[in-house]
Structure formats: C-alpha cells, structure tokens
Amino acid sequence: MSSRHASTLEVTLTTPSRASDYLDNSSAVLGGDSDGLALVISDATNHEGREVALPLTAVKGALGYVPDLVHGVHDDGSKWTRPVREESGLLVFEVPHFSDNAVTFESSVSVAASPATNGTSLSWGLSDLDAASDVSVNLTGVSNTEWDNQTFLSMGDGDSRSVSVAGSAPPTGPNGSPSITVTASELEAATTAESKSGFFMVAGWDDNQDTYVNSEMKFTNAPDTASSITVDIEYTYANVDSNDGVYFDVYLVKEAPDGVYAEGTRVADNAKWMPEDGAGNLTIPFDSPQNLDAGANYTIEFVTTTTTQSGPNNQQAFALHIDNNKPQTDWSTKTTDGVSHGYPTHVYWGAKAASNVAVSADDGTEVTLGDFSQGESKSTNFPIGRDATQITTTTGSGSVAVELAVQEKTETVDPGVELGNCSESYPGTLAAGETATLTLNSSCLSETNELNVTVGGDLSADAPAPQVGVVAEHTAASNQTVDYAGDAWSERYNVSKTWADSRADARLVIPFASNVVSIRDVEFRTNSSSWTGTSNYELDGTTLTVNLGSVDAGETTHVRVNGSRVRVENGSITVTSPTLAGNSLDTEFRMDSWSESSYIAVGGSASGSSSITSCRSRGRLRPSPSSSRRAASNGSTRRRLRRAGRPAPGRSPSRSSRRTASAFR
Question: What gap in Å lies between CA 643 and CA 427, rounded to an integer?
C-alpha cells in the first residue's frame, strides 16, 4: 500500500547482493543485515516521496523481526533513515523521494599566451574546485630572432676583436647566412679657410701677407686612440731659405668644421715644418695619446703661431696648402712678384690603403677579399657560428672597418609550467610549430590560479628571449541534484545556474532515463529574457548536452527540456539512439532483459501512434498506421517484443547501470 501513486509502486524482495540489479534512480533499497534479505521499492513514473505500508507478517517473516528504523540508499549514493510504526497489521514508513537526478553544467576555462617568455604568468579564478578537471597545457615551439650587428673600426694587420653570437640555434643573416662588410680607411678633408687653385692653406700667411692662416680638416672613422698625425710632404722650392718655415698648434674636436679655431683639445703645441726637414713623412706627435670614439668624425684644426724668414728673399710669405680634392697637394710659397713654388703633401691617420685583406674567426670561418683602395667597401657571406669568440684581420699596410651582420636565433628549449606546488616540463627542444601536451592534476587548482611559464635552457643574457606558445585548458563541471517532473510518457527538466566567473563554451549535461525515446523541446533563456528554442545540442545515447556558448560572470542561465519515454513491462531496455526534437519518431533501443510476458507501452505523440518491430537484440520504434496492435486501458498502444535466444522467464536484469544497496537496522 502507498499514500499516493500506489499503481506505479513496485516492491521486490531479494538478497542484498542482488538488490543492485533492481536499483535505478527511481528506486530505494532496504535490507536485512542478519538474514541477508533486502526490499527494493521503485517507481519509474512518479517521483515524489510518500508513505509506504507493507504487511507486517510478510516483513517479519522475511527478516525474522520487526524493525524500528528503516535505512535506505538511492542510486546516487545518498542515504536516508526513517522511523517505522505499526498500524492495523501494516508496517508503515516514509520514503523521502525516488527520483532526484544529477544534471551537470559544464564550461571550459582557457588561458593562452602567444607567445610566452620565461617568467610569463597566466591567471584565472575558479569558484568551484570540485567541478574542475585536470589542466591540459599545450606547449608549441617558437623561433625568436633578433639582429646583433657588430662593427669593428680601424682594424690593422693581425688585429683581433671579441665577438659574441648568442642563441640556441645556428645564426642567420641578410641572405640566410651571417655576412661581413669590409671598408678601407680614408681621409676626408674640408676647410673654411681661404682656398686657391683647388687647394687650401693649412698654416702660414694669407695672400695679403698680413694675416696668419688657420684651417680645419674633417677626418672620418676615427681609431680608438691617436698619438700623432702624419703629413706626407713632397716639395721643391726656389728663393726660399732652408730655415724659412711655419709654426702652428694642432687642436682636436669632435664636430664638423665650423670656421671657429682653437677649439677642443690642443693635442700638439707649436709644431713646425722647416724646408730642411725635407720631403716625406712629417709626423706631428701629440703631447699625449688621445682616446677617441672609434668610428666617429673629428675635426683637426691648424692654428698658425708664427713663420720664419731669412736670407735675401725677405718679402716672401709661407703657407702650407692641402688640396680640397683628394689626393692632397701643395706645400707652397707665394712671392710678391707672383712666382710660386710647390710642395705637394698628403695628410692621413696611420696606415695607407689595405692589401691582401682577409677576415677570420676562431671557429674556423675565413674569407679573403683581396686589395682595397681608400674608402672601398666589399661584402660577402661570413658563416660564423655560436662558438666564435673573436675575429682577426689581415690588411697589409692599411686598416679597415669590419661590420658583421648576424641574426641570432633562439628555439624553445626545456619549456615547462608551474601551478601552485605542481610543475611539469618538456625535456629538450620543440621545433617551431611542434606541440607537446602536459597535464597538471586538478588538485593543483585553487580559487585563484597563476600558471608560471619557464623556457630557455642555457642561454647568455644577450640572446633573443626564448619563447613558447601556451594554451592551458580545463573543464569546470558543476553538478546539481534537481527534482525533475515526470508522468507515464514524459520526463521534464527546468534548471538554472548563476555563473561566478566568465566562461567559454558553457554546456548543460542531462542524463535522461534509459527509456526516453525522443526529445520534444529544448529551450533556454539568459537572466529574465524570453524563452528561446535551440537546436544547438547533441545526444549521446540518452545523455543530452545543450551548448550554451560563452557566459559572463554573474549571468544566470535557465534551461528547460522535455523528453518522451515508453513504459517497459516485465523487462528492461536501454535507448541507444533517441529521436531529436522536431523529427519523426525513429528510435533505436537495446533489450537488456526480456521474457515471454515482456512488452513496451508507447504513449501517443505528435508523430502519431507507434508500432514496434523486432530484431535479435535491438528494437526500433517508428510511427505506423498499422492496426495490428492492442490498446492498453490508458489509451496507449503496446506490442510484445521478442528476440531470438531470449532468456527463460525470470532472468535477472542486466548490470549495465550504476547500482547501490543499503539495509534495515
């Protein structure tokens, strides 16, 4: 007996070991500890709780005593206890409910960095730790490059300079290989002093013989240090005494010629040239060595201090001239009668044009470039490697500037991640585009999560920053136990969830009962918006997954679903392919247990009445106009379904679903 829905209540007496065979999410099981007996009370149609009355003599006969309490367990593992009372020969107790069901809201958490570097952190929040899956981290290799061009100025014969090529992969360059450009040193002259006949006066008297001449010259590509300047003089003279000469100071300033003299640093005090010094190189020593910015442009200023005259030609004035157009010419005098006498000169820093030039590195790389004229440049591939630490030049009597063009390259080496106290890494190198997957246990997660990225290997500080693509994902499945409505022919859900955090790819999973043959309606709404039907769902057997898309923190999602089902008498089935909403009924199912007295009752639907066909271990439901069916008292249709090799009547049900059992105490 039952206080309500007695017609749909079933009671089965069995042993505790077999009770689970009869238990599903519409059942409660009760049993005896001492005698090894159990009662399975089930209602697959009506799910609310009720009082149940069993004959006192039957219970006492089965258990050997009259219990004071009844203990029960549902299919989901939840337990309950209720007192037992005797009334008019009946044992009466309450069953609190039959059909709570668990629905699942699922969503995806995904954080990414493209790319990440060593020390990158990715953060996200998680409101329900129990809902989270393990974290899957995809690491993708990335090649990172940067140019590290290096210039070495004023390299003479046998000179060596340090070089550094960083990274974890062989370097490249302008044409796929590192290259060098070698330029021979040159003199560039310019002046603001008086010019005459294509040359200018460096020091001495002007043409009017009443003003000392000052001048400037610009030199490019200065060396690291300088201790002298050399004047290369070739001269002849007439009517000039051997003691007639010129005295001047030399200044050095880092600027372009500007017509202002005696600037910067005076590097030579009262330098002189006398005809008796003869032709050839005149080296003017600096008072002390000067440290220069290699490769920079400097101006040398000549400031005349005095001239000397002796002998009968006392009307002569002396001036040092250097041609504006290379090569430089003329050290000369000019007399009042217009007779000129020339003294060709050339002024330069250090060595002359380079010859038989070669450049080598200590990793075995070497190229030969031949002879250079002043200022000439040549370029060639120079496949230097990461092991090189210096380059050396061969230049003959000249000097050159060397520019190394190299693109350093770093690959993804030993990438890894840390989350809380957990860490995982990939040993070795990930080539560009190659992906490896690491897994972090869900126990590493917390309400506030920070994923730290490590990548690099053994690299120098000046190498391109190592990089790795990172995508970390996990699902967040929030289980809710809900009361669902049902009757003989339908199973309905109306559930909602308020999201604590923003989520991508949110989903709702509803495990319908095994006898649901079609989905009638799937609707959803957000917050207080209108209900909207959706076809964005999938069915896997009788498990329905509704895709909700992206949701925002604080947003509430409502979903309601209506499914149609059949009633199985004296047997059990599992629906393997239900009918989607809006389609004609066409459902496949598996017969888990069947006997001579088994049949399926099918309710009316929008598709019309239904008939049943048979097969060996599967059945199929389709609408049919056939009249060869017998009507049940409730107006439904039913037909017996048999399959070859059916078990004998009374065969126990399949154990394909989850089962649990409990006991009287």
Answer: 57
- 352-377 as b/e, with b when 16 or more CB fall inside 10 Å? ebbbebebbbebebebebeebebebe
Model confidence at 609: pLDDT above 70: no
Q: Which of 568, 611, 606 is nearest to 587 (CA)?
A: 611
| C-alpha dihedral (298, 304, 308, 314), degrees to nearest 10 | 120
Q: How many residues comprise the chain?
A: 665
Other residues' Cβ atoms within 10 Å of the Cβ of residue 114: 11
Q: What is the DSSP string of 322-380?
A: EESSSSP--EEEE-TTS-EE---EEEESS-B---SEEEEETTS-EEEEE---TT-EEEE
Arithmetic mean of pLDDT, 561-572: 75
* Neighbour order of strands in the sheet with 618-623: 572-577, 587-593, 618-623, 610-613
End-to-end CA distance of the chain: 22
- Express each pLDDT in 235-271 by its tens digit: 434 444 555 667 788 899 988 777 788 899 999 998 8
User: 187 pLDDT exceeds 50?
Assistant: no
Beta bridge partners of 497: 557
pLDDT at 571: 76
Of residues 375 and 18, the one with the higher pLDDT is 375
**CB 629: neighbour CB atoms within 10 A?**
16
**Residue 568: pLDDT over 80:** no
Query: Is residue 579 helix, strand or coil?
Result: strand
Task: Please compute the mean of the pLDDT values over residues 365-390 and round it to a whole number.
Answer: 92
635: left (phi over 0), alpha (psi -120 to 50) or beta: left
Token look-up 């006492």 returns 60
Q: Is 578 helix (H, G, I), strand (E, B) or coil?
A: coil
Of the pLDDT bands very low, low, confident and very high (cuts 50, 70, 90), residue 90 is: confident
The pTM assigned to this predicted structure is 0.46
**Closest of 491, 479, 520, 603 to residue 26, by C-alpha:** 491
Structure tokens at 22: 């009869």
pLDDT at 194 over 50: no
Order across the sheet with 160-162: list the strands.
160-162, 390-394, 357-361, 366-370
d(CA 517, CA 531): 24
Within 13 Å of residue 611, how many CA atoms lie on the same side as its CB?
Answer: 10
Domains, the chain: 6-99 (no CATH), 107-143+411-476 (2.60.120), 148-185+353-408 (2.60.120.340), 195-348 (2.60.120), 484-654 (no CATH)
| Residues 209-241 pLDDT 10s | 455 667 777 666 666 777 777 655 444 344 445
Structure token digits, residue 337 = 């009668």
- Cα 486 to Cα 99: distance, rounded to the nearest angstrom: 10
pLDDT for the residue 88: 83
Strands 467-483 and 79-83, how do they pair?
unpaired
If one counts every other C-beta atom within 10 angstroms of the C-beta of residue 650, the result is: 9
Q: Determine how β-strand 199-205 pairs with β-strand 412-413.
A: unpaired
Of the pLDDT bands very low, low, confident and very high (cuts 50, 70, 90), residue 467 is very high
Contact between residue 322 and residue 330 where contact means Cβ atoms under 8 Å apart: yes
- At residue 546, the 3 state secondary structure works out as strand
Q: Yes or no: say if 566 and 491 are a contact pair by the CB < 8 Å rule.
A: no
pLDDT value for 103:
53
Using an 8 Å Cβ cutoff, are 391 and 360 in contact?
yes
